[in-house]
Amino acid sequence: MIQQLYPQTNHSFRYELNKDMHLAAAHFIDHQSAGVCQEMHGHTYFINMTIAGNDLDEIGFLVDFKQLKSLIHSRFDHTVMNNHPEFKGVFPTTERIAEKIWGIVQAHLDTLAHSPRCLQVFVRETPTSYVVYRPLAEDFR
Ligand SMILES: [Zn+2]
């Protein structure tokens, strides 16, 4: 079980859902300024996503927890981040990983009639380092 306090995102939606997951993945940052991170290495990423909305689906879900896990965990667990099409042309830094996770999750949410929004993605790369990605208003379609 993952238990951790996360930074809060301010909003006035009726419902807020948070999904934690963790996954093992390798990456390398192919840039001379990246130091030792230029070499392939692995992390256990701890991820939290915050989803909010005013309405629920016919089951009473804001979004299905299992669906969120399958969108992200099934895609990235035990893979090399650099090999994913999302990271073609960009380095899989923690910042970019958080941003891409947001894009994948929000693309799924956009297919739901009740229009939930992913307001925040938290990605912890090491015990001492994490990134929070929060989309701008214009990032929503
Ligand atoms: Zn790394």
From TrEMBL:
Alphabetically sorted, this entry's keywords are:
Lyase, Metal-binding, Queuosine biosynthesis, Zinc
Coiled-coil-forming residues are none
Which GO terms are recorded in the biological process aspect for this UniProt protein? Answer: tRNA queuosine(34) biosynthetic process
Top class in the EC scheme = lyase
Under Enzyme Commission nomenclature, its number is 4.-.-.-
Q: Which InterPro entries match?
A: 6-PTP_synth/QueD, 6-PTP_synth/QueD_sf
What's a Gene Ontology MF term here? 6-carboxytetrahydropterin synthase activity
Catalytic residues? C37, H78, E125
Q: Signal: is it a keyword of this entry?
A: no
Q: What is the protein name stated in its UniProt record? A: 6-carboxy-5,6,7,8-tetrahydropterin synthase
